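Still learning. Any example?
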Amino acid sequence: MQLRTRFILFIGLVICCSYGVTFYRTSSFQEDLVVEQATRQAKMLFHQIRLTRQWVADHNGLFFMKGPGVESNPFLEQGQIRDEWGNWLVKRNPAMVTRELSVYAAREGMGQFNVTSLQPMNPANAPDEFERRSLKEFENGTEERVEIEKISGRYRLRYMAPLKIDSQCLQCHSGQGYDVGDIGGGMNVTIPMDLAFAEIRTNNRMLLNIALATIVIVSLAIFFLFDILVAKRLKNLAREMDQYPVRRSMQNPLPEEDDEIGALAGHYRKLCQRLELSQQELGSTREQVFQSEKLAALGRLVAGISHEINNPLGGMQNCIQMMKRSTDQPDLQVRYLNLLAQGVDRIKGTVRQLLNIGRNEPLELQWGNVDEMIRDCLELTCMGRRTVTVDLQLDADKPVFVGMEALRQVVMNLAGNAVQAMGAEGGTLRATSRLEDDRLLVEISDTGPGLDPKHLDKIFDPFFTTKEVGEGTGLGLSVSHSLVKQMDGELTARNGEEGGAIFTIIVPLTGEAATGEENEP
C-alpha cells in the first residue's frame, strides 16, 4: 500500500472518529437540551396550574350554572346550590378545574395534566404506574420526578411534583386523615415530545450529511496536496536515484524547497558528489593495483619461463661444448644432437603453452581411442618413477570423435601435476574413463596432499601457482581449462574423501561422435 493511501486512510479514520464523537455528543446535547426545555415548560405549567388551583381553593371553589356538559360533582358535599332566581349552580373544586383544563389543553395539543393521589376520592383520579412510583418516592423526600415514555411509537415527557395539604384543602379532604403540610397527592404534567425528537432526527441527518461532505472534501484536499507537495517530489527524487549514474542531468529538477524533502534532496546531491569522488579515487587505486598485479604476474611469469628455458639451454650449451671437444667421435655427436633436439622441443613446448593463453583456435577433431591415449600419457609421465603406482579403470571401449591432441595435452598436464604433487614419497595415480549419456568422462586423481580449499576458485587462472619460483609457470591448468572449454566441455577440481585431488573432464559427444559410428575417409 502506498504511503499516500495509508496517510489518507489514517487521516480519514481520525476525522471519522472525531466527527463520530462530535456527532454523538451533539446528538446527546440536543436531546438533553430538548428534555431540559420540556422539563422547564412542564414546571411552568405545573406552577401555573398550582396557582390556579390555589386561587380556586382560596375562593372555596367555583360555581357554574348547571347545563349540558356541566354536571354536579357527586363526590362533593353541597355539590350544587340553587340561587334566588331558581337556577341550579354546580360547584367546581380545584381537582375538577384541573381535570377540565387538562381536557382543553390536550385538545389544543399543549399537553395534559392531572391530579392524583394514593387515596383518591374520585376513582377517575387513580394513579397509573408512573404516578404511583412517583407518589411513593415523594413520601421518601423526593421533590420531583421526570421521565421520558414511549407509547405506541410516540414520545412524551412526564413531570410530576407533590401537592401539600393546606387549610383550604381540608374542607374536602378532612375525612381522609390529612393534616396541614402533609403530601396529599401530586400533579402530573405530560408534554408531547414527538415534534422535538423529529427535529433532533432532522438535525442529526443534517449533521451526518455535513460530516460526510466534510470527510470527502478534506480527503480530496489531502489527496491532491499530498500528491503535489510530497508524492510528486518523492517520485522525481526516486526517478533521479534510479537513473544515477547513467543520467546525471536531471530531467525533472529535484525539489529545493526549505522543507524535509528539500533537505533530503540536498543530502542526495551531497551523496552523489561523495560517490563520484570515491569512484575517482577507487578508479585511480584500481589502476595502481592492476599495474602492480600485472607487474607481479609478469615477474612470476618471467621467472618461471626463465627457469624453464634456462635449464634446457644450459644442457644444450653443455652438449655444444662436448661436441666441440669430440669432433672425431661420430657416436657422441649423434647422441649430443639428440639431446639438443630434446632441449629444443622442451623450449618449444614452453613457448607453445605461453602462446595458447587466450587463443581460441579451432581444434582438430579426429577419431581415436581415448583409453589407449590415456595409457600412453600415464606411461610416459610415470616412466622412471618406481614410487608411483598407476591404477587404470578405462571403460571408454570404442573410438570417439574429439579433439584428440588437445585431450592428450590436458591428460599430460593433469598427470604431470599429480605426480609432482605426490613428490618423492610417491602414491597412486588413478585414471578412469567412461561414456555416459552422449558424454565422455575422464577422471585423473592422486593420493597427494590435495588442494587447498581457499585456492579452488583460482587454480585455473593464468599464472596462478602454489609452487616455488622455477618449479612452474602457472600455465598448465589454465591452458588445460581453455582447451576443454574449446571442446564445449567442463574441467572441474575437488578433493577426494580420503585425500588427494580429483580432476574431472566432461566432453559432450554429438552426431557421429555420440553414436560411435566411425566414418573416416
Observations:
- DSSP finds eleven helices and 14 strands in the chain.
- Residues 260-325 form the longest helix (66 residues).
- The first strand starts at residue 62 and ends at 65.
